[in-house]
Predict the 3D structure of the following.
Amino acid sequence: MNSTEKEQKINEILTRGVEEIFIKKDLEEKLRSGKTLRVKLGFDPTGAKIHIGRAIVLRKLKAFQELGHTIVFIVGDFTAKIGDPSDKLEKRPMLSDEDIQKNLTTYKEQVGKIIDLSKAEFHYNATWLSKLTFAEIAELAESFSVQQMLARRNFKDRYDAGTEISLREFLYPLMQGYDSVAINSDVELGGFDQLFNVKAGRVIQKHYGKPEQNVMVTQMLEGIDGRKMSTSWGNVINTTDEPSDMYGKLMAVRDDLIVKYLWLTTELSSDDINALDQQLKDGENPRNIKMRLAREVVALYHGAKAGEDAEADFIGTFQKGGIPEHVEEIVVENNVPIKDVLIKKEIVSSGTEWRRLVEEGAIKNAETGEIISDPFCVVKENTVLKIGKKRFVKIVI
Amino acid sequence: MNSTEKEQKINEILTRGVEEIFIKKDLEEKLRSGKTLRVKLGFDPTGAKIHIGRAIVLRKLKAFQELGHTIVFIVGDFTAKIGDPSDKLEKRPMLSDEDIQKNLTTYKEQVGKIIDLSKAEFHYNATWLSKLTFAEIAELAESFSVQQMLARRNFKDRYDAGTEISLREFLYPLMQGYDSVAINSDVELGGFDQLFNVKAGRVIQKHYGKPEQNVMVTQMLEGIDGRKMSTSWGNVINTTDEPSDMYGKLMAVRDDLIVKYLWLTTELSSDDINALDQQLKDGENPRNIKMRLAREVVALYHGAKAGEDAEADFIGTFQKGGIPEHVEEIVVENNVPIKDVLIKKEIVSSGTEWRRLVEEGAIKNAETGEIISDPFCVVKENTVLKIGKKRFVKIVI
């Protein structure tokens, strides 16, 4: 990388997909200093799927890594083990060491598609947090005022609404902040709602006489329908989604979100994105821009060929009216209602959603065009189902 | 003690000087059950003088002790050692082990005048609090909501006024509450402003599956002038005050407070106090009732004879216009201004107070009646000073 490329990369790190940086000037200096920075990201080892909204911060980490900085992942096993505060009745640990290991594997599989894990560090925060004494915690707590905590949006909204906030929740920023001390973080990244938590690291580092990290939170990405991403609304694209499924969902992105999706979920250059943006403004059919978006994103997670195949399928299906070449196959046992299979496989999010789809006539036999109107329908032979306008599933007996 | 006496004693425990009991019915049952109760009182080992307002809760403990219950003192050495939150710059421990030992001796000397210490227990809370892990503290914190904490008067007033509340302060009730678990408290006592803290013990005991203590807070006693007791206002009577001084200050109690002082600071029976109250209502000179109050209180802390002597002195002085027999003596070096001596010995609270007294002509040579009008006056020979209407001090060169 020559110095012009490097400078360009730094500028992009500081702007693209960035919601807020604190303190931007300091981070800029650190990035230009030539020092190898320790860039921290904490995560909960819950084993959840990573959607392309959550992946924004991972893509940002990748950019730091490409500049030669060290990515340090903090596995939040401490809070995972001491139990879920919302589970008041059973005070058992939320996750066993075994669970955490399993979930970490799941996490690494997904993150490994973005970050070069061979160059990254992973640390378990129970290593240091379990050793803190009450005296030390009380001292850390002295660094925060109740007013500061309540000013945090998440707490403020709940306080104003009269919803209970557990005192325990006030201790979490202390934990996250102490992690920064333990691993000597220079920069901490977080999602759009993490500003308060990542800033806590600065306070605690200062308390221990260490240099204060800079913090960066990335932008929020809406779901394909413009609402907040939520599995129960079916507007989420996971990084593990099958190519054709991922492609199909991206083709359903609301037109006014196309450019934001280009900036936040692809690695297209600024020049390319600005050009596509201009085409849209000049009256280009949004469908064509979305095809580009969809191909790029599928390529990022499944390789360039998968992107091209998904595109070819899409053209074959929707421009020629047929069934795509690559359709997800689901093997079912005899006499199991389709409903149960689709919900189990998370193709349909709930019984309510299923009933709505059936009532709308949105479930069809893709080969015959026959609408399935019985919500308890059982398929007796191999069938390709069409769900809504763009999704296909092959039921194999 | 026969059963009628015992019943009377229980009734008195539950009412006299009591601000609030939670839950009264439960405590009543415990007291009648015949079980030996563990009655807790926590204190900070600061070495401070105990005034007769703070002694109210100690007199209440004495009543429990007379019924055969076990008094358990918690020495708050944990917080004392981890440092004063208000001292943000120097993070050193507030008190050393040696300081704490010395202060505990001071405390025991004073408390020993009220409680039979040979039958009481003393425990240091650092013993258990220093061993708690972050995981355990987070669990305890789960038992409290931020809203509950902020509802506490002390916090509410500050929050409403926009005054900073450190997160650390929210952790103190957890500590005090855990003390109750550690010593298996059945009842916890506290001063009038301690309701929230003593109630915290119930929450934490419940968390650990232990029976919940009952709590009792005692009434507040105003200073002799009706304002809040404060050393800087000179309206405080300490349990260690010399007999003549104590007697003199009690004679200055505002008339409308006499009966409250009788209830809260003496061991006179209810019948006696009600009779004295009636005398006042029937037009008796309040001075005569105050003499009884003063004699009783002096007797409690210095013995019956000291009470009688102080009374005789008072009669000799004020009813015959002379100088009392027993006058506090202060030995001073040559050429030291009286002002400095009196402030150092805490006879006058401040330079401002001293100047006010001089300006009012309230400082006199008691033998000659000469008014001292020079605020920087130096005494050259042994002199009895009269300060205000009732106090005498002998300056000895």
User: Anything to note?
Assistant: Chain B touches chain A through 38 residues (CB under 8 Å). The CA atoms of residues 158 and 164 of chain B lie 7 Å apart. Strands of chain B lie at 18-22, 38-43, 70-75, 121-124, 187-190, 214-218, 328-331, 363-365, 383-387, 391-396.
